[in-house]
Structures are given as C-alpha cells and as structure tokens.
Structure of DUF2653 family protein:
Amino acid sequence: MRLSGQEIVNALCINIAARKMIQPDQVDVELMWDDDYGFSAEVFVGERNQILIEASIHEAIEQYVYKEYNIRIFRDQIQLVLTDEDIEADINVD
C-alpha cells in the first residue's frame, strides 16, 4: 500500500486538528526532506507553526490508515519515500 503526499498531509491535518480541537481545514502542512534531519513536516495553525519529526508523521499515518482503510498498522511498517515529485509512504500490510 502506498499513500500519496496529499494523503500524508491529510493525515497530519486530521491529527493536529484533533489535538488542538479545531477543524482540519484550519491546519496547513508542508512536508520536508533534509539530508541532515531526514523527513519532517512544518505545520501552520493560524499565526503559529511547529516542526514535526518523522515519528510524529508515522503516528498520524497510523491513525489515518486505521480510520480511512480500517487497517491497523505499526510504525515499523511505514517507510517514508522521497520521489522525484513528492514524499510518499510505503506501508507493508502483509
């Protein structure tokens, strides 16, 4: 199973909105890759922003896959992948 970059963004928007008790459309997300730090995401809520590390992205993906696809996965089943166009998530569901 592979999640697109947009699905990862959706997962993060839903996750952050639930934590902050706001609507997902009030959250903006930018996925990032850095040679030194790896995968991360910058999250914007109103005037505030925060950086999420890869573990936080994995947590949001776990919850999203369970809610949207009714499949329980664990962090070790998720591999973030940098493609030519986007960041995607490969999920081993075997």
